[in-house]
Design a protein that fits this description.
This protein is of the alpha/beta class. It folds into two domains: 30-343, ABC transporter transmembrane region fold (Up-down Bundle), CATH 1.20.1560; 372-381 and 407-633, P-loop containing nucleotide triphosphate hydrolases (Rossmann fold), CATH 3.40.50. It is built from 22 helices and twelve strands. The protein has helices spanning 31-40, 43-75, 80-128, 132-137, 140-182, 184-191, 194-230, 232-240, 244-296, 302-343, 384-387, 432-438, 462-468, 483-488, 496-505, 509-514, 532-546, 562-576, 588-593, 611-617, 620-629, 640-643, and strands at residues 7-9, 15-17, 372-379, 409-416, 421-425, 447-452, 455-456, 469-472, 550-554, 580-584, 596-601, 604-609. A six-stranded mixed beta sheet has the order 8-9-10-5-11-12, with helices on both faces. A four-stranded antiparallel beta sheet has the order 4-3-6-7, with helices on one face. Strands 1-2 form a two-stranded antiparallel sheet. It starts with 6 loop residues before the first strand and ends with a helix.
């Protein structure tokens, strides 16, 4: 039996979800009002669009009246001149209408594409401000979908509604006025049919709105799967475990669900068109019958009847547009609602008003590097509702979370002396990585204070903080770009000499210079064209280019071969020289070189001192030494003699 809210396999193997709280979500009140400022940013094009729309509407309504004159004042009394100049007038109106429609297309495109640009850049900038925990939960494909499918849907809605709404309403008014002028009886009969057009729109429009939201969500799910399976790590995992066929089946089920939902949208959309077509035919027959009787009895002229029939077609064009516009507006609100939902997500890490700049002291500058201090710090990781959205996670798979009352760090206090190396050791899950994430303010503590140079990091500008603290993680991430671009990321505009010097200091220049394209070599997805040791040394070269006074490092040599590890260890010595360093140590060589060692257990510092002092203490560090580090003492990769 399927778990409540989980995915189950439906008819035909399609994946469906019992928990439809996301797809049934209603558009938030005020969404339409929030769209207005984005549109008003393009006042000039909007004004031009409205002007051309008025011209087009007048030309549309005037043509049938001229047709009446051609018949009644030209053809019936056999006035050739009247027929000629009235036909020329019709042709002129057609040219004017064509020009107006061209300008409508240009202005609506200008407004629509400008709106896409504004929304995309705003959403991208807002996502960049989200905390690290946000990215650990949100699916990449879902985020990409918000920037692509949802924003484009919003663009299409705005451009179509802007160009159609005024034109439709104005055309409707002018056509009705012309019809009343020619025959009020036929006009009243035609108007009595309009409510029959609006009723199916309300019934079908709500269903289409839900289908639209579900389609967007399922498309995002499918995009996420493709993002995960099409990168090197996902492809490698699939091949190593022989899961290619299973992956195809899973993708087919998800694509099948998208297909099934899309079919429903097509069916409902077509059903609406069929109903409107039938109603239009009924109304046309009514007008022909009533108008024919009035013409036979001499109440209505023949030209007026022809004009009325033409005007009727011009009337139900706008009426049909109004019905489709209502559906378009209802589905468009879903796109805007999903975009605004993301923009309304408040970043947990925000710069305070009046935040201070932290002076950046580069190695070699006068004065020491700043120290780092943790003062009675408490920390627990935020819940899903604090950092993410259910619609950005797997549809139907997100479970309500119980509040996690366990603390990752509790009353943690220590000081990293300026210009010194402090090593963090401890069992897995003790809180070492969390400590390194609080220094560059990837998270904020729930209690206590993290200080750099005696200043609370929450009171500093984020830019100056990130300029001061350099971080190298175990997983050295490289963009799918050239080596030059990946290095320039640390210091845009760095000279060729500076790039080469950083590579030499990181002991990677010999490898780079031997490549056919040197620094212009493309490293591939996440740098997979390089070995693990080469990626780590490129990341160290990037750190050296940034030249931060404080280095936070999750030492990543534990899984390298002896030669790569030795090269990275030598590069580390250069990277850490003269800097305040906080290192999660995996190697005995780093631990021995440390000016102080902090032993972390259950979010607290349980021991501190040098290597020899902690061994003599015979506590947790001594246990860790004998279980994890002692075997490294006699290996060739132990560089303690070199580092001392």
């Amino acid at each position: 039996m399927a778990m409540m809210g989980g995915p189950v396999i439906g008819p035909g193997g399609a994946l469906r979800f019992d928990d439809d709280s996301i797809t049934r979500q209603q558009v938030k009140p005020g969404t339409a009002r929030r769209i207005v400022p984005y549109v008003l940013a393009y006042r000039g094009p909007v004004a031009l669009l409205l002007m051309t729309t008025v011209v087009d509407a007048v030309a549309t309504a005037a043509s049938p009246l001229i047709l009446k004159l051609i018949i009644d004042d030209g053809i019936v009394p056999r006035h050739t001149g009247t027929v000629v100049w009235l036909c020329l007038l019709v042709a002129a109106l057609a040219l004017v209408g064509a020009g107006a429609q061209y300008l409508q297309s240009w202005t609506s495109g200008r407004i629509g594409e400008g709106l896409v640009y504004d929304l995309r850049t705003k959403v991208f900038a807002h996502v960049q401000q989200q905390p690290l925990a946000f990215f650990t939960r949100a699916q990449t494909g879902s985020l990409v979908s918000r920037l692509n499918a949802d924003v484009i849907g919003a663009r299409q809605a705005v451009t179509s509604l802007l160009s159609q709404s005024v034109s439709t309403v104005l055309t409707l008014v002018l056509v009705l006025a012309s019809m009343f002028y020619l025959s009020w009886q036929i006009t009243v009969a035609a108007l009595l049919m309009i409510p029959f057009f609006l009723l199916p729109v309300r019934l079908i429009g709500r269903r289409l709105q839900r289908i639209t939201r579900e389609t967007m969500q399922l498309d995002a799910e499918m995009s996420s799967m493709m993002n995960e399976r099409f990168n090197v790590s996902g492809a490698l995992l699939s091949k190593l475990y022989g899961r290619a066929d299973n992956e195809v089946d899973l993708f087919a089920r998800r694509a099948g669900r998208v297909r099934d939902v899309a079919i429903g949208g097509v069916v409902y959309g077509r059903l609406l068109a069929v109903i409107v077509t039938v109603l239009t035919t009924f109304t046309t027959a009514l007008v022909y019958g009533l108008g024919g009787v009035l013409t036979i009895h001499g109440t209505l002229e023949l030209g007026s009847l022809v004009a009325m029939v033409t005007l009727l077609l011009r009337l139900y064009g706008p009426v049909n547009q109004l019905t489709s516009m209502q559906v378009t507006a209802m589905t468009a609100l879903v796109s805007f609602d999903r975009v605004f939902e993301l923009l309304d997500l408040k970043p947990l890490i925000a710069e305070l008003p009046g935040a201070r700049e932290l002076p950046v002291t580069r190695p070699g500058d006068a004065g020491p590097a700043p120290d780092v201090e943790f003062d009675r710090v408490d920390f627990r990781y935020p819940s899903a509702d604090e950092v993410s959205l259910a619609s950005l996670e797997a549809l139907g798979l997100r479970r309500p979370e119980r509040a996690d009352d366990s603390w990752t760090l509790e009353q943690l206090s220590f000081r990293v002396p300026a210009g010194k190396l402090t090593a963090l050791v401890g069992p897995s899950g003790a809180g070492k990585t969390t400590i390194t994430q609080l220094v560059p303010r990837l998270y904020d503590p729930n209690g206590g204070t993290v200080r750099i140079g005696g200043q609370d990091v929450r009171e500093l500008t984020l830019q100056s903080l990130r300029d001061t603290v350099g971080v190298v993680t175990q997983d050295a991430h490289l963009f799918h770009d050239t080596l030059r671009a990946n290095l320039d990321y640390a210091r845009p505009g760095a000279s060729e000499e500076e790039l080469i010097e950083a590579c030499r200091a990181a002991l990677i220049w010999d490898t780079v210079s031997a490549l056919p394209n040197g620094l212009d070599t493309v490293v591939g997805d996440r740098g997979y064209r390089l070995s693990g040791g080469e990626k780590q040394r490129i990341s160290l070269a990037r750190l050296l280019l940034k030249a931060p006074p404080i280095v936070v490092l999750d030492e990543a040599t534990a899984h390298l071969d002896s030669e790569s590890e030795a090269a990275v260890q030598r590069a580390l010595r250069t990277a850490l020289a003269g800097r305040t360093a906080l290192v999660i140590a995996h190697r005995l060589s780093t631990i021995r070189e440390a000016d102080q060692i902090l032993v972390i257990e259950a979010g607290r510092v349980c021991e501190s001192g040098t290597h020899d002092e902690l061994l003599a203490l015979g506590g947790l560090y001594a246990d860790l030494y004998h279980t994890q580090f002692a075997q490294q003492a006699d290996t060739p990769s132990d560089l303690s003699s070199e580092l001392h």
